[in-house]
């Protein structure tokens, strides 16, 4: 038989699914895949339930129900001063995952180059390759994950069509500084390219920092496609409602991509997300404050256990070096470490090497802190017992 799609045949099952399945198998506390362990706001849930019952269950408008497009436009204005026309500059998708794919489809022809920043979220590379485009990887390095400006500049060339940036960034928790964003904006304009901005963690930002969409920088309004996710903003990751804000011409193309991917997105959930986006500022501030406290709790706990914890400024995640845990280090890769941790400590984490195409660092694990405090404490207790046991065995 003829070989089906070679790129998909070579793509493994996502690490998040693999680790969540192992967590279930081992009865582990799941600090791997990033999802909160409590539901989002009651009024949003209620709005969804009510929106199931009032007779609007057929195909909604392709670009999204008017209520949600208006709410996304209003949120753009409220939080960032971005003016966007709900009729033509907002596209609702089935999750940010679809939004990112639709944006890549909107921009890329086969052979176009796309600048990607490693470590990277695991859908970017496969989609870029499936579209026949050429990834140009630029790597951030721990512990600071600072943007290597000369390398980034060198990655741009005459065939560059776009850069994809993720801020706040998964898995590093990096928040790109205003200065770094200005540097990127300058490159994008000088090379006449576009930017896809994965901003799913826009409201999960800590220490009083303010999220800065690349789109708000001078000259960038017409070059950016900005992606958000109700899953993250309302702690409802299963809902899969994403949204794109883009200049009209690009939004039109992203809508055509959406037409061929899913066509529409469940109307009831869209209407509930519109209710969520209209919540007052305190909801968004409390969400960030709650997660910041959880970040602090988990980071401090991991440090106490002996992990080399890296700072995290946003997102659901903290990255930790496990090599200092044992006098002679851990004998194995990050994937080995995470598999051992699940099987023996009964705690799931994600090996950071999964966020690299090749030659990754092999001594970092990513832990999700979007869990109830008692769950974080229980995970820390389990790891403390495991580390003590391992050290005793080695002594
Ligand atoms: N981008 C990043 C960086 C993410 O971490 C996630 C998390 N799932 C997504 C995109 C996808 O978001 P969604 O669940 O809305 O598809
Ligand atoms: N974004 C989530 C994470 O990084 C996972 C989403 C998924 O499983 N596809 O953990």
How would you portray this structure in words?
It is a single chain. With 395 residues, the chain is an alpha/beta fold. The chain folds into 2 domains: 6-39 and 282-394, Aspartate Aminotransferase, domain 1; 42-280, Aspartate Aminotransferase, domain 2 (3-Layer(aba) Sandwich), CATH 3.40.640.10. It is built from 14 helices and 13 strands. The protein has helices at residues 6-10, 15-26, 42-52, 66-80, 95-107, 124-130, 149-155, 178-190, 230-233, 248-261, 267-277, 281-305, 334-345, 373-394; strands at 29-30, 90-93, 113-118, 134-139, 160-166, 194-198, 224-229, 242-245, 308-309, 317-321, 347-348, 350-351, 364-368. The strands form 3 sheets. A 7-stranded mixed β-sheet has the order 2-8-7-6-5-3-4, sandwiched between helices. A 4-stranded antiparallel β-sheet has the order 9-10-13-12. The longest helix is centred in the last third of the chain and has 25 residues, at 281-305. The chain is globular, with a radius of gyration of 21 Å. It starts with 5 loop residues before the first helix and ends with a helix. The structure holds 4'-deoxy-4'-aminopyridoxal-5'-phosphate and glutamine (GLN). 4'-deoxy-4'-aminopyridoxal-5'-phosphate is lined by residues 95-97, 121, 166, 170, 198, 200, 229, 231, 237, 240, 242.
